Amino acid sequence: MMDAAVAGRDVALVHDEAKRAKTLRRFNLGDRTFKVITQISAVTVLALLAGVMLALLHGSLLTWQTFGLDFLFTEKWNPVTEKFGALAPIYGTLVTSTIAMLIGVPVSLGIAFFLTEISPERLRRPIGIAIELLAGIPSIIYGIWGLFVFAPWFQATVQPFLIDTFANVPLLNQLFAGPPYGIGMLTAGLILAIMVLPFITSITREVFDTVPPVLKEAAYGIGCTRWEVMRRVVIPYTRVGIIGGVMLGLGRALGETMAVTFVIGNAHKIFPSLLAPALPSLRPSPMNSPRLWATSIPRRSLPWVSSSSSSPSSCSRQRGSC
Amino acid sequence: MPSLTAIGRYHGRRWRDHLATALAIGAAGFGLTWLVLILLVLVVKGVGGLSLAVFTEMTPPPGSAGGLLNPIVGSLILTALAVLIGTPLGILAGTYMAEYGRYSKLTMVVRFINDILLSAPSIVVGLFVYEIMVAQMGHFSAWAGAVALGIIVIPVVVRTTEDMLLLVPSTLREASAALGVPQWLVIRHVAYRAARAGMITGVLLAIARITGETAPLLFTALNNQFFSWNLNAPMASLPVVIFQFALSPYEDWQQLAWTGALLITVAVLGLSILARALSSKKVQV
After folding, report:
1. CA A91 – CA A276 distance, rounded (Å)
2. To probe the interface with A, which of B21, B105, B111 has the most A CB atoms within 10 Å?
3. Which of A184, A310, B194, B275 could be joined to B204 by an S-S link, Cβ 3.0–4.6 Å?
């Protein structure tokens, strides 16, 4: 504030041209310096972030040259004969993410429905914050919790139940076959589902709130139930935003490393059973040379994730600047 | 006069509404249950190992007593360095995007890449730093870890700074510009002041995010069994020690892992609640 006050006095007190010109020069210099500094920062940020992406491409070049596209479709991972393929980790990533989305999306939509339409006004804020706190828990915590608490419980109760129930159902007995390890793709998918919940919920909730009350009231006015308003008015109106939230959640699920590493079992092989171990797409183990960068390419191929997920905040931006 | 089928349809609709309501309440209960379960387990398992030794002694070899002093200090150092690297860059870049080049091409490109990096898996950043720093220097170092965390801080800070500055009404800027105040002073004394709570929130959220980061540190700062102030050498950090100790077969190590997990969670949740309290006082984002 000091500078502004001094500057103001300077402007008021200049009588002679020379002093006035000096002040203006100082203003000009400061203005130009600050602009250049911010501009340089913006370019630096751009260079750094673009560097991350270019480095991914550059770092994986050796893999693409050596194995070509076969890398994506080969299961083998043999350091002795130097034959590598990424199919197993890609499979593990896709299956766990699919499970996570199958559970996470309906539950998130349910929570958002609850928070915007059903919950009493007083409970909305605390419950909303509690759900968002799930996003704050570091992924490594999900990992050790999943390994030491969730997996043993899952092994003792749910997995034997699934195996017994579907033992005679064709197809499903393939999915739920084998001994209950506790850890495995199903466990990893469930933990991922809990992890993506807060992201999808907060975006969906935000877009649900953008539905004009007039639309909802009109529907209520002609006798619609809450569910019908949700199904026929709110969801169609906010479809794009919901898809954005789901994509953001999917991005999180595909890119999660630490939590999944703990509970997926890390087997470099493809098993049809969901109860079997698999591999997350990038295992942070010293045994895998970080130079096999290409395994991280599949997860980077979702640039539209963030551009679509930015839509809710860009409407708030417009609201703010108008 | 309502016919019988109309009444039947009405009951059907009402039943469906009740079902949807019950399912939604169930979903909310489902989400809350996990939060409570995770926090409960953390407290139950972590509190047992909480003692003064945790804060005053080094990580022990298996089978002997010890604490978490070196990873705690390491985490603090890494986080502080990362914030020092990431925050000024992020705030200045965000300032350019909101104030000087609001409609420029550069802004659009930075915003696009920034949004991608915001949701990018952190392990990718770890790989990048591994390639440009660790592989070049030939050894793991705390610097590399700090740079990796700093790169994770940048997108968060850029995004919140830009959003918060865009929320400042243009009339405020125009009023002070009309008094003859040059633009950089307008930014520093009017725009920053109006957006301060939101910008601090952004930095706090960034800190909360990097405090729990493990993946980028595995390739960069690695780990250190001993206390070290040397930024050019590997440095211990809480998440990496938790990762290593939790997967070990030794019970005392696992106990330390749970205690560390409790500490980290309390720190991160505390930071995000603080950030939320700060932001709800001022403009709602």
Report:
1. 12
2. B21
3. B275
